[in-house]
Amino acid sequence: MRIFYPFGTAATSLTALTSFFKPNGALAKIIKGYQPRAAQLEMAEAIAKAIDSQQHLIAEAGTGTGKTFAYLVPAILSGKKVIISTGTKNLQDQLFNKDLPLIRKAINHPFVATLLKGRSNYLCTYRLENSLTSHIGFSQADAKALAKINTWAKRTETGDIAEMASVADTDPAWYHATSTLDNCLGSDCDDYADCFLVQARKKAKEADILVVNHHVLCADWSLRDGGFGELLPNADVVIIDEAHQLADTASNFLGVSVGAKQLSDLAEDALMEYFKDATDIPALRTAAEDLEHEVKDLRLAFGVEQKRGDWQEIESNPKIVMALNATQAQLQRLSEQLTRASVKSKA
């Protein structure tokens, strides 16, 4: 775990920490069978001192130490704006839905906490409605999943797809009910005022404790580094839990990749817009369908076996080069037709 401190002024009371973790302290009163752990208190005190002195701290704790409470309590008691980043969305949900509510019961210090995930983790009402009214057919499984999502969409307050136990967050149907950076309309969307992602980001700015995951944290760093704004608010303290996972996440996230699924999704979105608003441009439908075929040919050109390789291998394979050139040409055709259709639809 790593802790960074861009700013900071208020001191955290070590006395309050000791009192919180002692045998008859606040934590013992809400956790049956609670036993104080010297390592947990030692870690909590080290974090509190680091916050007070505005120093970086790298801490490693063994299983059973209780490291989550060891960093949550001094962070809350500090009274500072804190961002906590976890290694996975599951850990993020556990921290927000289980650990923080427990701490809230025990700690005599008011605080506002909120959760913020990446864009694709929130329901997009525009894309869901677009899919439900589209003339493109869906498989029986997708149609059933979309019906469940539509029912849930009418009652959810957060739009967090993790709420949907009956439709797994890995279900392909979510593509039709969530957005990506590539297909989000932003402020041009008719549903922007009620957008769940916009609402979540607004709450993030107002919270004392903001719980994110490494992907969101890296996305924010990437935007700031490129001068394109920010996803997260400025914070006094940044706590990175499971910090050993950060390097892999950063290298994967901050790189640039293009895959067959992205291209197929583009073709599908283009077809959806054709049937919705641009049926008088048949060349748009042809271009989208031809792209789907070229993507399939490109995947076949690379072979069945998935492997890593360098660009020299691709350049020396005429079959792959030919398929790449054909896909690129088809993308250009589709781009031209989408430009023509753009006057008819914001999407």
Textual characterization of the structure:
The chain is of the alpha/beta class and 347 residues long. It folds into three domains: 2-112 and 207-253, P-loop containing nucleotide triphosphate hydrolases (Rossmann fold, 3-Layer(aba) Sandwich), CATH 3.40.50.300; 119-194, no CATH class; 260-341. Helix content is 52%, strand content 6%. It is built from 14 helices and six strands. The protein has a six-stranded mixed beta sheet, with helices on both faces. The longest helix has 24 residues, at 318-341. The model is unreliable at 5-12 (pLDDT under 50).
Count of DSSP strands: 6
Radius of gyration: 24 Å
Please report the distance between the alpha carbons of the first and last residues: 42 Å
Number of individual domains: 3
CATH architecture of the largest domain: 3-Layer(aba) Sandwich
Poorly predicted parts: 5-12
Mean pLDDT level: 89
* Biggest sheet, spatial arrangement of strands: 2-1-6-3-5-4
Broad structural category: alpha/beta
Strand content range: 5-15%
Q: Number of helical runs?
A: 14
CATH superfamily caption of the largest domain: P-loop containing nucleotide triphosphate hydrolases
| General form | elongated
CATH class of the largest domain: Alpha Beta
Reported by name, the CATH topology of the largest domain is Rossmann fold
Major β-sheet, in short?
6 strands, mixed
